[in-house]
């Protein structure tokens, strides 16, 4: 019974995603078709619309690429890795792009190495998506502060930017697939993030203040504490 419920819930979600995707693809197609019809009717040179058409095609290409990431049956490949090193890797991946917009990235390591079970590729993708969003939100000369800490049970990573913030009425929507406020956004980044956090049994929260900035708060249960509980049970 439970399995059936899960199956029908899954099918419902897939149905919603598919219709969202179809909608997102139809818009650029309609635009391209319009351009082509106009150019034929008016005898205009297609060249003048080249970049507009190219933009729309790139958008569809981004969308389908990210959608595949999002919807493919995912195998997670968990190993014990250092979360600190993961953050450093992501910073090195995005540093030059951030610097080209004048953004600064600060990493506050408030703990020594946190080793936890993770799918490192997915974890990197998660953090990259968040950093990209922060960079895009800040326009120019912003700063991102990443704070990594831990207590006995959880690792906590805070990613804070001093961008424009997110209006209250949008805070609930940002994790929805296809929600975007960007002209060339796909709206899939945070949905992917959410799924990756769930895969790691973590939590993902957002706090934002208009004109001040946005912080995403990620927590992950530490493999160590999970093991310890099992040990305690065995002893008890
Ligand atoms: P996309 O980046 O393609 O728009 P996302 O799912 O990554 O899609 O983000 C959805 C929306 O959430 C963005 O369009 C933006 O409005 C908002 N958002 C996400 N991160 C931030 C941030 N750090 N600051 C301000 N707004 C943000
Ligand atoms: Mg994004």
UniProtKB/TrEMBL annotation:
Residues 20-224 form the Histidine kinase domain. This is histidine kinase. The chain holds residues 302 to 537 of 537 of the full protein.
């Amino acid at each position: 019974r439970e399995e059936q419920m899960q199956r029908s819930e899954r099918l419902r979600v897939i149905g919603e995603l598919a219709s969202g995707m179809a909608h997102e693809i139809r818009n650029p197609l309609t635009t391209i078709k319009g351009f082509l019809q106009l150019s034929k009717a008016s005898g205009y040179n297609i060249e003048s619309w080249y970049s507009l058409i190219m933009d729309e095609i790139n958008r569809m290409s981004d969308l389908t690429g990210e959608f595949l990431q999002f919807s493919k049956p995912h195998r997670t490949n968990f190993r014990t890795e250092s979360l600190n090193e993961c953050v450093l890797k992501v910073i090195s991946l995005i540093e030059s792009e951030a610097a080209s917009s004048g953004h600064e990235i600060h990493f506050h390591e408030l703990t020594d190495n946190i080793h936890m079970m993770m799918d490192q590729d997915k974890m990197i993708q998660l953090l990259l998506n968040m950093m990209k969003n922060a960079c895009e939100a800040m326009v120019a000369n912003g700063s991102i502060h990443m704070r990594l800490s831990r207590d006995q049970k959880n690792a906590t990573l805070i990613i804070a930017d001093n961008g424009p913030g997110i209006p209250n009425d949008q805070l609930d929507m940002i994790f929805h697939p296809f929600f975007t406020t960007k002209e060339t956004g796909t709206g899939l980044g945070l949905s992917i993030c959410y799924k990756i956090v769930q895969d790691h049994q973590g939590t993902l929260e957002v706090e934002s203040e208009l004109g001040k900035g946005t912080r995403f708060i990620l927590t992950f249960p530490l493999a160590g504490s999970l093991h310890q509980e099992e040990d305690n049970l065995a002893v008890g």
